[in-house]
Write a structure and sequence with these properties.
6-stranded antiparallel beta barrel, 4-stranded antiparallel beta sheet, 36% strand, alpha+beta
């Protein structure tokens, strides 16, 4: 007596034989045929609950200032002091962090000593030149000596100017280790702790301006492709339970790490005050997506990885391939999107028995 497993094996072999007869007998992988004959089997109907309509999709992201940048040192440094906290709102001129560069701070002390020395030399040279000029006018010394003193005083003046320029450069180098907020905004991220060392070009903290707000959202490629630049969308603040309207500013290409996702940037028409760096959700109209809840066994994949289902047609024992896209899963079923209609029947393979159909209803 044949078991259900034996029946499933024989029917599977029959399907394979029919598929080869329809598509040729060449070896190698091939796509599923557009139509195929289904062998005689006891057909059974079973209904599935339709997936409720979802007029919109929501995708997670976060809010930030449109003008955002990281503070990075020009040379290797040590973080001496972090003056703010992550998420803190700051005004223009607020000191954010202080770094320490030994050479820079020592350079200021050396430059100050050179300025003090140059000042003393110039004061002495200037006084000598003035005294020699008076003596030359009285005829007590030769004019040549007075002129020489005057040239020495001018040289001392130039050395003082050079020393002051060196001091300004040294102080500017130290100022580069002090980070101040360029305007009103908030501290989005602190990357380094006090006492840690940071290399050239490495970020210490991130500042985002409060002038304009935008959101960044990770959107599946299939939905991002339906967006266009300038399109009006709605953004919901998770933390404040508020929503505002925005416009799509940028749709990035998928990365190698997240091939199925795109980063979508939305400029908000009205900033959500006090919610810089907060969580948000991007709402996208689901449009005309038809979502169907089908059994796992109804979804098949060809050699190229494309998903499809086999649809029962009006012609007896003829089934048709319909390409679909898997958009979600649960423990009991798969959610697919595709050109399906209510009351259509899909072929499923369950418990090793072929020939069961599942009815799609809405």
């Amino acid at each position: 007596m044949s078991t259900s497993s034996d029946i499933g094996v024989r029917l599977s072999m029959a399907i394979a034989a029919i598929a080869m007869g329809l598509s040729g007998c060449d070896d190698g992988p091939r796509a599923a045929p557009a139509t195929a004959l289904w062998p005689d089997a006891n057909e059974s109907m079973r209904s599935v609950r339709p997936l409720p309509d979802q007029p919109t999709w929501r995708f997670p992201g976060w809010l930030r200032g449109s003008n955002a940048f990281d503070f990075t040192p020009f040379e290797p440094s040590q973080v001496r002091k972090i003056h703010v906290e992550e998420g803190q709102t700051v005004s223009a001129g607020t000191q954010l962090a202080s770094l320490y560069v030994p050479e820079a701070h020592q350079g200021v002390a050396i430059a100050e000593a050179k300025v003090a020395e140059a000042k003393a030399e110039f004061a002495l040279a200037e006084a000598t030149a003035s005294r020699h000029d008076t003596l030359a006018q009285r005829g007590l010394i030769a004019r040549q000596i007075s002129d020489e003193s005057t040239r020495s005083a001018e040289a001392a003046r130039q050395r003082l100017a050079d020393a002051r320029a060196g001091l300004a450069t040294a102080r500017s180098r130290v100022r580069d280790t002090q980070f101040f907020a360029p305007g009103q905004g908030f501290v989005a991220r602190i990357y380094r702790r006090e006492g840690s060392f940071v290399g050239t070009g490495e970020s210490v903290l991130r500042f985002e301006s409060a002038g304009e707000m935008e959101g960044e959202f990770r959107v599946p490629d299939r939905h991002a492709r339906n967006l266009r630049l300038g399109q009006e969308v709605r953004v919901h603040s998770v933390d404040q339970l508020l929503s505002v309207v925005g416009r799509v500013r940028e749709i990035a290409s998928p990365t190698q790490q997240d091939a199925g996702l795109r980063m979508v940037t939305v400029a908000l028409n009205d900033p959500l005050a006090g919610n810089w760096g907060g969580r948000a959700e991007l709402e996208i109209d689901a449009g005309h997506d038809s979502l169907w809840k089908v059994a796992y066994q109804a979804v098949q994949h060809d050699s190229g990885g494309s998903a499809y289902v086999m649809l029962k047609t009006d012609t007896p024992k003829v089934i048709e391939r319909i390409d679909v896209e898997v958009v979600g899963m649960s423990d009991q079923y798969v959610v697919v999107s595709g050109p399906l209609n209510p009351d259509q029947e899909l072929l499923v393979l369950a418990d090793g028995i072929a020939g069961l159909y599942t009815t799609l209803t809405r």
